[in-house]
Amino acid sequence: MGVQEEIKKLEDELLHTQYNKATQKHIGRLKAKLAKLRDEQQNPKGSGGASGPSYAVRKTGDATVAFVGFPSVGKSTLLNKITNANSEVGAYAFTTLTIIPGLMEHKGAKIQVLDAPGIISGASFGRGRGSEVLAAVRNVDLVMLVVDVFSPEHIPILEKELSNVGIRLDQEKPDVKIEKHDRGGLSINTTVPLTKIDDETIAAILGEHRIHNAGVLIRDDIDADQLIDVVLDSRSYIPTLVIVNKIDLADEPNLKKTEVAIGNRPHVFVSGHKEINLEELKDKIFETLGFIKLYLKPQGKKADVEEPLIILKNSTVEDVCNRLHRDFVKNFRYALVWGNSAKHPGQRVGLDHVLKDEDILTIVVKRSL
Ligand SMILES: Nc1nc2c(ncn2[C@@H]2O[C@H](COP(=O)(O)OP(=O)(O)OP(=O)(O)O)[C@@H](O)[C@H]2O)c(=O)[nH]1
Ligand SMILES: [K+]
Ligand SMILES: [Mg+2]
């Protein structure tokens, strides 16, 4: 029997084994066997190196996005349909045991798509290895919350689990600057009225983090949670796209009900299995990420208008340097920019300059690389 057949056999057995106290051990063993076989399949003997399944995936492409959802909502099915990947699909929970990357090319952008093991309530506390899965999601550019059409109530549970590991969905990083001093107490300045937090609360929160002397400049109407996020400085702010899968199984009233439950956040109705709306899904991913075009102009030469660089909106000069050459940041002198982000044509800017669509950019480095 080949590996693939063995896997199939174990999957079938798992599918037909009811979970209870008496079968717990048996199911455990089946899953262990299955995992070993999948590992063998992924890393054939003699391929060298101890490259077992890993949660750490190297980012590639113009952006990285990840599927996050309960078990068996169809994440792997979708990955296989929109990328070049081949992730195991099964009719039982926790078919996917590691992060599986795939590459999707759409409208000139290369987007890395990550498939992940299913998330359940309590995942952030380690249920189902959930904390490792969630940690791997921290660095992506877009989280795709996948639910099946009958379970939109999963969305707030997923948000809660992501929030528990410091991932803030669809929120801007609050504009708060805290400059610590040696003495002088706290001086709090705001540019907008604060309606959700008062100075005493701010002082109390900062005091909890041993910040007693500092200049605080607040430019957003933040609440206490947001201030704590800023103080901890380890939060990821990531946009989301809700994917409602398995619409082939639903009727009109079901679809309506789910649509209402989702409200006005970006979403798309699809069927991975029946290949419904998959082009629309790709468009939505592209659109939600938000790409801009950048024209590179080598020093003293004309800008390359034929082949613009596709970059994420809000990218900085530093992001572009990192994309172009691993030594560009280290050897960076300055950059020149023409176009929408420039105060005047050929403005001289630094690494933190934020670029806009159709800018022209020249990067000047210390020595020829
Ligand atoms: N009817 C229907 N079934 C689907 C659809 N997409 C996936 N499925 C089925 O749902 C089951 C689970 O699919 P998977 O792709 O393994 O789901 P998953 O979310 O990756 O599951 P885990 O890796 O276990 O978390 C499989 O039996 C799929 O064939 C769909 O659009 N419609
Ligand atoms: K599954
Ligand atoms: Mg899967």
UniProtKB/TrEMBL annotation:
<keyword id="KW-0342">GTP-binding</keyword>
<dbReference type="InterPro" id="IPR031167">
    <property type="entry name" value="G_OBG"/>
</dbReference>
<dbReference type="Pfam" id="PF01926">
    <property type="entry name" value="MMR_HSR1"/>
</dbReference>
<dbReference type="GO" id="GO:0005525">
    <property type="term" value="F:GTP binding"/>
</dbReference>
<dbReference type="Pfam" id="PF02824">
    <property type="entry name" value="TGS"/>
</dbReference>
<dbReference type="InterPro" id="IPR005225">
    <property type="entry name" value="Small_GTP-bd"/>
</dbReference>
<dbReference type="InterPro" id="IPR006073">
    <property type="entry name" value="GTP-bd"/>
</dbReference>
<dbReference type="InterPro" id="IPR012676">
    <property type="entry name" value="TGS-like"/>
</dbReference>
<dbReference type="InterPro" id="IPR012675">
    <property type="entry name" value="Beta-grasp_dom_sf"/>
</dbReference>
<dbReference type="InterPro" id="IPR031662">
    <property type="entry name" value="GTP-binding_2"/>
</dbReference>
<dbReference type="Pfam" id="PF16897">
    <property type="entry name" value="MMR_HSR1_Xtn"/>
</dbReference>
<feature type="domain" description="TGS">
    <location>
        <begin position="290"/>
        <end position="365"/>
    </location>
</feature>
<dbReference type="InterPro" id="IPR027417">
    <property type="entry name" value="P-loop_NTPase"/>
</dbReference>
<feature type="domain" description="OBG-type G">
    <location>
        <begin position="63"/>
        <end position="290"/>
    </location>
</feature>
<dbReference type="GO" id="GO:0003924">
    <property type="term" value="F:GTPase activity"/>
</dbReference>
<dbReference type="InterPro" id="IPR004095">
    <property type="entry name" value="TGS"/>
</dbReference>
<keyword id="KW-0547">Nucleotide-binding</keyword>
<protein>
    <submittedName>
        <fullName>Small GTP-binding protein</fullName>
    </submittedName>
</protein>
<dbReference type="InterPro" id="IPR045001">
    <property type="entry name" value="DRG"/>
</dbReference>
